[in-house]
Amino acid sequence: MPVRKGAPTPLHLGTGALCAALLLTGCARTPEPAPASPTRAPRPPAASAPASPSGPASSSAAPGDAWPVPASRIPGLGPATQARIPDGTSQALVVTGASADGNTATTVLYARNPAGRWDRAAGPWAAHNALKGWTHDHHAGDLRSPIGVFRLGDAGGRLPDPGARLPYDQDPGFAISGTGFLGEPLEGSFDHVIAIDYNRVPGRTPLDKERPLGQGKGGGVWIHVDHGGPTQACVSLDREDLRELLRALDPAREPVVVMGPGAELAR
Question: Which residues does UniProt assign to the signal peptide (predicted)?
């Protein structure tokens, strides 16, 4: 029987049902025969980490900002983006896309200390996002990741809980097969996942299929194990980086993900 830590009994899906359901979601792709000579894309190099603030202001500025950025703002985020982070949140995973139409990103976890200053807590980690980049108006099948600030409250995977503090649903329904956009194998991509609260009901297993905004707006947008290529809408991290993130996220700190191309996040 699947194990759901810290949450009600989840909705269970068989592998076949999952694959069918994910055709309208961000995390899977219809399996296709691999090219005759598939090319595995190299993982994007992580950008240099922003220095942790050591005084009343941080050392990173967003475009258009007067130098330096206030310590109460996360490096790389502009005032409009920062304002979307809830007041009660003290953990923010920032996924900064390389460009509006690019499918590589850099990911950093920030934590707010009691003085209100945001410090880097983990990362930077290289990541992939959707094949065609980013959008403010995500729809199923558009091959773009949604831009915005979204809650992170539920996790799961095919493999046992690696020590997550978020509720974790271990379920064989997280199995996936087939190939990605570059012919790379998808197997193991859902060994661990974190559900991004885009068009889903919070507090349920990531496998839950209810879409409050309707199926046409997509769903099933997760942070999952990187398979070496772009995703349908998800964010993917190296396996060990994702396991570190799972152990770091604390539901008591109301964690969120802030995601989008760098130019958008800097607004």
Answer: 1-20
| Model confidence, pTM | 0.78
Q: Which residues pair with 152 in a beta bridge?
A: 196
Residue numbers in the chain where pLDDT is lower than 50: 1-3, 7-24, 28-67
Question: Does residue 156 fall inside a structural domain?
Answer: yes
Q: How far apart are CA 173 and CA 130, in angstroms?
A: 23
pLDDT, position 72: 84
Burial of residue 254, with CB atoms counted within 10 A of its CB: 0-12 exposed, 13-18 middle, 19 or more buried = middle
Q: Residue 236 pairs with which residues in a beta bridge?
A: 128, 224
Are 124 and 106 contacting, i.e. CB atoms less than 8 angstroms apart? yes
Structure tokens at 66: 């007067």
* Joined tokens for residue 70: 């206030």
CB 157 within 8 A of CB 174: yes
| Strand-strand pairing, 256-261 and 91-97 | parallel
The sign one gets for the Cα dihedral 210, 213, 216, 218 is: negative
Q: Which helix (H) or strand (E) holds 19?
A: helix 15-21
- CA 150/CA 247 separation, integer angstroms: 19
Instruction: Determine, yes or no, domain membership for 43.
Output: no
Q: Tokens for 170, please give them.
A: 């271990």
Phi, psi dihedral angles at 220 (to 5 degrees): 60, 35
Range of the domain at 198: 3-31+83-265
Number of domains comprising the chain: 1
Furthest-apart CA atoms within the chain: distance in Å: 57
Q: How far is CA 75 from the centre of its chain?
A: 18
| Residue 183 in tokens | 């012919």
Position 76 in a domain: no
